[in-house]
Amino acid sequence: MRRWGLAALLAGVTWQTQAQPTAVPTVAPAILLRPAAVFDGQDLHPGWAVLVENDRITAAGPAAQLALPAGGRTLELPGLTLLPGLIEGHSHLLLHPYNETPWNDQVLLESQALRVARATAHAQRTLLAGFTTARDLGTEGAAYADVGLKQAIDKGVIPGPRLLVATRALVATGSYGPKLSVDEDVPQGAQEADGVDGIIRAVREQMGKGADVVKVYADYRWGPGGSAQPTFSQEELTLIVQTARSAGRGVVAHASTPEGMRRAVLAGVETIEHGDEGTLEVFQLMKKRGVALCPTVAATDAIAQYKGWKKGADALPPRVQQKHLSMQAALKAGVTLALGGDVGVFAHGDNAREMELLVRDYGLTPLQVLRQATSGNAQIFHLADRGNIRPGLLADLIAVAGDPTQDVAAVCQVRLVMKGGALYKQP
Ligand SMILES: [Zn+2]
């Protein structure tokens, strides 16, 4: 028996070496990238070049000062700006646009296999759009499928961004959806948990299954057609943060009401998602406590258009007006902004829409949103190994046509995508 076992083991080894994953392009030992300019996560440097060896950046600076090691190759990138791989702060790879299929139907009617198959395509589109990392904030009823998706990407089975996953997310019983007939309990888009024991158990369960971050819904629309109201108590939110933090995880809160936001901030969450009804007072509290806002303006914009808003022709609908007011208050308070669009509400691969809207509709500068999407998100999400172009960091790099610090729309013209030194797209 032992001998047979060893033979089977060896056969397994042979099979594994024959079946190499094909989704990861080979990594060159050394490659010198020579674009027109480099945006290093902070500022633009015309005439710089970047040297990549294996999966890391090993040098960055004026092109004349960089030497190519023996056996390396040079990639000329005329007219392009090289920048750190963009970091998506709020995606749902397991969702697809609501104008294709309403959220309720995705959660209740689509099989997990269909949803995962879609998610693999979404992951590839995200990467090829220049987003080499994504914080994926909840599977919305697809259980722990994000953990497997992340593993498939890390193992090189499918192409995709490096993922931070939130798994199921936490909601207070009765607060979330889908909401159908009161006579039927239907599967929910997140895990219900309440009270001391229930909450501690749910947070630990999610972390044990692979959650990198814990997501909590601090408010939601109670009852059929109800308006958003706080969900968890202050004590419950504080316990969620304490339980996650003791295992080295941060907590992010979906919140749009001032009271839901206030409780989440006092509990110690790291980011507030949406913040639609945020007041100057609550944003000042966020500023004081170092909590970032991920405003997801692209989701607000998309949902308003799905509901019939003819952008450019019609007046701003109330929800969009409200978003403008909250963003003005957030900017006035000086809150740190994370960059994340709530992708999945709209198409994966259109991630840069959030950056364009922040500049075009909300008055931010291209430089502000570029920093947000690179070094800013890296800092907020504790990703010290990326988000900047510096020796020693991961070789997650993209090149875009033109100068994105002048015209942010350049980030839609992605010509090169490198992740961990592997080229997924090149001119
Ligand atoms: Zn979301």
Short descriptors:
Metal_Hydrolase; Amidohydrolase family protein; Urease, subunit C, domain 1; alpha/beta; signal; hydrolase activity, acting on carbon-nitrogen (but not peptide) bonds; binds zinc ion; OTAase-like; disordered N terminus; TIM Barrel
Give an account of the 3D structure.
This protein is α/β, with parallel strands linked by helices. The protein has 2 domains: 30-85 and 388-425, Urease, subunit C, domain 1 (Roll), CATH 2.30.40; 89-351, Metal-dependent hydrolases (TIM Barrel, Alpha-Beta Barrel). 35% of the residues lie in helices and 23% in strands. It contains 12 helices and 19 strands. The strands form 5 sheets. Strands 1, 2, 3, 4, 5, 17, 18 and 19 form an 8-stranded mixed sheet that branches. Strand 3 and strand 4 form a beta hairpin. Helix 5 packs parallel to helix 6 (234-246), helix 6 (234-246) packs parallel to helix 7 (258-267) and helix 7 (258-267) packs parallel to helix 8. It is globular and about 70 Å long. Residues 1-18 have low confidence and may be disordered. The site of zinc ion (ZN) has 4 residues, from loops. Zinc ion (ZN) binds at residues 90, 92, 137, 342.
